[in-house]
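User: quick one
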Amino acid sequence: MLTDASGHALRETMMDAVAIEPFERFYEAHRSEVLRLLRRQLGAERAEDAFQETFLRALQAYPRLRHGEHLRAWVLTIARNVAIDAVRRTRPTVELHETGAADGRPAYEELSHLTDDLPPKERAAVVLRYGYDLAYDQIAAALGSSEEAARQAASTGVRRLRRRITP
Amino acid sequence: MTVSPDLDRRFREAANALGLVDIGFDVVESPVGELLVAASDRGLASIWFDPDADADLERLARIAGPRVLRSPRAVDVARRELDEYFAGRRRAFDLPLDLRALPPFTVAVLRELARVPYGETTTYGALAERVGRPRAARAVGTVMNRNRIPIVLPCHRVVGSSGDLVGYAGGLDRKVRLLELEGAR
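Assistant: Done. Structure below.
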């Protein structure tokens, strides 16, 4: 049984070196927060699909993780990316091109350096309105707010930008 | 924000259907108490008495990888066969087994163990002889003690040469119960 015992010990050491927590524990620890974030960004209904996609993407990437640190930040980043993709999908591609900048970069990238310093809600509203050309009811759904609040956030954001751009 | 049971279930099913889970598990009710049953894409990987959420997750990760997920669907077949067994309607299991990461001697002993028929008993010494290591009865005992798929790999059918039950990792009560169920006592 010597080989059995030493082989076992070796495996234990190897597993400790990897030390990524079992996915079930990771999922249970972060699922509520991920759902909260997605609901804020996409509204209750669309958040459910995005929730599934977020954790499926996480599962897919999980074996490639090199360590078990910063898993919360990692999964929230995936969730944000899924939300961005979901918002992007609500507009037909052809319109994205039309509103895109001359070099082919989408308009939201043009906006990003301008809007970076805005408060988060205003930034989201401005980017969704002028970067993605979404209607206010869609923006309201994405932000989880009323249509009026979305309109308000976009216009306050734009006013703030104007003050910054025009000296 | 609580994740609804329905959303949770859909995620688990999708993960399983897409083959993204290294090892799926669920708790199965049985007359010998709750069993934590786990299966990978290779087959049934473990059955543990007295589930202990925290420790079991780590043990499952050590068998198959870190993508351990509770997934009722992953153990459907095993659950059905176990139910039939406990209802007295099944005498042999028809499940592929995942024996990875086990040393060759252990695998050899478990394969012999799998041949011990329903309702019969054998001894540690006899099993040792059958794997060509007649003096390794004690080592066979260790393999029985660590058997990670009890019931299906029937270590409860292995007793001492005097007929004494000797021991059972799940507790002697359960060994007695299983042997009685099979009419071996």
